Amino acid sequence: AELALIQSEKLAVLGRMASSIAHEINNPLEAVTNLLYLARHSNDVSVVKEYLELAEVQLRRVGAITSQTLRFHKQATNPQAVTAEQIIESVLSIYQGRIANSAVLISRRIRAHEPIQCFDGEIRQVISNLISNALDAMSTHGGCLYLRSRVATNWRTGERGVTITVADTGTGMSAETRAKLFNPFFTTKSITGTGLGLWVSKEIVDRHRGALRARSSQSGGYHGAVFNVFLPFDAVVR
Ligand code: ADP
């Protein structure tokens, strides 16, 4: 009975995700349809070009939305035992180029070495989303990206696990932003943002019976954001 309940909860989550994603994809697709119609009925080459360029922008948006949600999900068939360090390093290697081209320094402090049982592809996606956001927040002035891991205990369940921290010295978040952070499609990045990163991340962490928390630090002239991901050691038991 408990298993059936979990299955139906999962389906409910999937249903909610699917319907908001479908909604969000539908708008740019409708725009593309209209733009193609206009292009087809125009004789002015420069106007046609303009319509096609606008359509391209809309299609790129659709691409960003689907890759954001599906990128790592494909490989997440079996739970694996991985350490926080393995996760952090494999995600960092994806961002090597972007970090090399920026004024961002990396500070690592790895204190948890026990492996976590988890859908490692999904957890990589979570850390990837957090690092990507941190780099976005430091894109104009550079700064420091902090990656930490330590053994921790869930104060509610007493369960032991690992907390991975991704922190930055970027723009930080206003109280208004913090309140909406985990809402689907909430973004302050006008063109490049999908507003799906943190929402998907929270769903993934919740399904691992973990916790994802955000703080903004703006005291004493120090700006930035702190994201903590707690994962129990046996995150995946089913
Ligand atoms: P996206 O990155 O596509 O906007 P997210 O769900 O990943 O979507 O993030 C939602 C919003 O949360 C961002 O647009 C930004 O305003 C805010 N945010 C997330 N991480 C950070 C961070 N490290 N520093 C400042 N703001 C952040």
| Rg over CA atoms | 20 Å
Rounded mean pLDDT score: 86
> Biggest sheet, open or closed, and with what strands and sense?
5 strands, mixed
Structural class: alpha+beta
Shape descriptor reads globular
* Beta-strand residue percentage: 15-25%
Strand order of the biggest β-sheet: 2-4-5-7-6
**Tally of strands:** 7
**Tally of helical runs:** 6
Approximate helicity band: 40-55%
Bound ligands, named by name, code or SMILES:
adenosine-5'-diphosphate
**Low-confidence blocks of residues:** none
Instruction: Give the SSE string.
Output: HHEHEEHEEHHEE
What is the CA-CA span between the terminal residues?
14 Å
Secondary structure topology:
Blueprint (H helix, E strand, L loop, with lengths): L1 H39 L4 H26 L9 E3 L1 H17 L3 E7 L5 E3 L1 H18 L5 E11 L6 E9 L6 H6 L16 H11 L3 E6 L8 E8 L6
Helix pairs in contact: 1-2, 3-4, 4-6
The structure holds adenosine-5'-diphosphate.
